[in-house]
Amino acid sequence: MKNAAQEVSSISSSIPKIDFCQGADLKALSLQFRDNDPADIIQSVIYSAQNPVVFTNFRPLAVAFLHLVARIKADIPVIWVDHGYNTKETYAHVEKITKLMNLNLHTYVPKMTTAHYRALYGEVPPLDTPEHNAFSQTVKLEPFNRAMGELKPDVWLNGIRHDQNTYRHNLDIFTHGNHNTIRVAPMFYLKKHEVEKYVADNGLPDNDIYFDPTKGEEYRECGLLLQK
């Protein structure tokens, strides 16, 4: 019978080691893991990375990604940018999921409160205007960049998929992110109905009433993935 140390060694040796240096061939890595189960990708990433983190916005179906990660490493830092415009349903969902999965949640908020912003500038500016770009920088990009600067990850996992919009369709499982990181999207090649089935099969509570003022529209990018 194997002892505990031998068991750990046996498990580790069966997990593909990923080279996350900045010169890594991410196209080759994406091709290598193209047909792997998302859970296998997550396991390899967590085993290989020095300081991995998770980013989530708790949007509809995001619970599937969080569930997959939490089953493998429950204490991985989870970054959530609370821009201050979330629905009451989203705030309740965040509380429920954080307790249900015992998430190591790191919440980052803008330096300017929603009330302060409204008093100075009014409501959310129209999309694709300089004012909206400044708004997005204030309520989402700055808190996210602050999180990355404080946590200093080498890898950040996210739940994006190729079928969500045109921009994401042209990404892949492994891509270069900002802050000298590598982004990993384990669920990239899943389709929406497959994620819905995962949520249903595992009896997970979902968040159906969601609003992101920096996106404004379902298929529009909020800016995090566009940063260099």
Sheet of most strands: 6 strands, mixed
Head-to-tail CA distance between termini: 51 Å
Give the oligomer, counting copies of the same chain as homo and different chains as hetero.
single chain
- Overall helicity: 40-55%
Number of strands: 6
Structural class comes to alpha/beta
Low-confidence stretches: 1-11
The CATH class: Alpha Beta
Our Rg estimate from Cα atoms comes to 18 Å
Shape: globular
What's the CATH superfamily, by name?
HUPs
Quickly count the helices: 9
Please list the strands of the largest sheet in the order they lie side by side: 3-2-1-4-6-5
Order of helices and strands: HHHEHEHEHHEHEEH
Mean pLDDT: 90
Q: Which band does the percent of strand residues land in?
A: 5-15%
From the 3D coordinates, which CATH architecture would you assign? Answer: 3-Layer(aba) Sandwich
Describe this structure in words.
The protein is of the alpha/beta class and 228 residues long. The protein has one domain: Rossmann fold, CATH 3.40.50. The protein has 9 helices and 6 strands; from the N terminus they run H-H-H-E-H-E-H-E-H-H-E-H-E-E-H. Strands 3-2-1-4-6-5 form a 6-stranded mixed beta sheet. Helix 5 links the parallel strand 2 and strand 3 (104-108). Residues 1-11 have low confidence and may be disordered.
Write the layout of secondary structure elements.
Elements: H1 4-13, H2 26-32, H3 38-48, E1 52-55, H4 62-72, E2 77-81, H5 88-101, E3 104-108, H6 114-121, H7 130-151, E4 155-157, H8 166-169, E5 174-176, E6 182-184, H9 192-201
Parallel strand pairs: 1-2, 1-4, 2-3, 4-6
Antiparallel strand pairs: 5-6
